[in-house]
Amino acid sequence: MAACGIFLTIPKVAFGTDKELAKTAKALFGIIPAKTAAPDKVTAAQIELGRKIFFDYRLSKDGSTTCVRCHQPQFYSTDRLPQSAGFNNNKGARNAQSILNLKYQDIVHWRNDRTSIEDQALRSFTTHLSFGNSSEKEALKRLELAGYQPLFKDAFPGSGNPLTLENAAAALGSYQRSLTTRAPFDQFLEGDIKALSNQAKKGLNEFITVGCASCHNGTAVGGRTMQKFGVYQNYWNLTKSKNPDKGRQEISKKDEDLYVFKVPSLRNINETAPYFHDASTQDLETAIRWMGKLQLNKDLTDEQVSLIKAFLQSLTGELPKDFRIAPTLSPQPYAGPEPL
């Protein structure tokens, strides 16, 4: 099985007290802090520039697409579609993952085919599955016609030529890294034992001792490793997927990467159905049951599934205001689909 990042061996023991559970969980996961230092003036300008680009449909070739099309606030940064679509309604092979809490993740895409958030952002301007511009020149012209020059100048004051796609990608990266969702689970890890219900605490215990945390660990509760989907049997035996996706192998061409995908973050998982790369279930309990069988070779009981679900629900956090509310954009109209 191909893997990268951190795979943890978890002791198969129950925890005697809530404090013991919290101590172990704190070491396995990580806390999203209640407060962070305010960014300096330039960083704040870059974040705001990225925010505006993220919400601006005028920057795509046909005016139909921008980052928020696939990462909608009302759906916790997903679109809840089996396959996400971009320019000209071109559909991708997989559904969109949430971009919330990317700050705490090492892997951007299902197949790890992007080196960073900035790499993903840079490519999005010209790929047919996103903005659809015919060239970098056309993408830059749309930014210019939409009135972005002053914003780039403020965000990159030391640059002789601030309006570049590389700077746009950097701004998008800064904005996306600012989007974190602190949850009751974080309060529990800080020592507020009452922040989680008894069911959620029992579910956390199950999540750790059953083995889920071997892959789903770190502050994002995932997002740090690539793992084979279907360790103990072909995943489509349960998911009934009609055309099994080869995953990372399509990129690396290595046999050991067959059916290997990003281990997704489980933050806000209760709000981001459908589940898995091919959206093979809408039901969180079904997803939990399948993962137990496919990845751990365990038939989870109804009680275990219910408890783990209660824990996962405690990972739902409050949406950041700068994501929940769309920014006001410049008054310039969409430039039209013609080549620029």
UniProtKB/TrEMBL annotation:
GO cellular component: periplasmic space
Superkingdom per UniProt: Bacteria
InterPro entries per UniProt: Cyt_c-like_dom, Cyt_c-like_dom_sf, Cytochrome_c_Peroxidase/MauG, Di-haem_cyt_c_peroxidsae, MauG/Cytc_peroxidase
Gene Ontology molecular function: any one: cytochrome-c peroxidase activity
Binding site for heme c 2: C212, C215, H216, M291
Signal sequence region: none
Cofactors (names): heme
Ligand binding (heme c 1): C67, C70, H71
Keyword terms of this UniProt record: Heme, Iron, Metal-binding, Oxidoreductase, Periplasm, Signal
Any Pfam family: CCP_MauG
Residue ranges occupied by any Cytochrome c domain in the UniProt entry: 198-316
Subcellular locations according to the entry: Periplasm
PTM text: Binds 2 heme groups per subunit.
Cofactor stoichiometry and binding remark: Binds 2 heme groups.
Protein name: Cytochrome c domain-containing protein
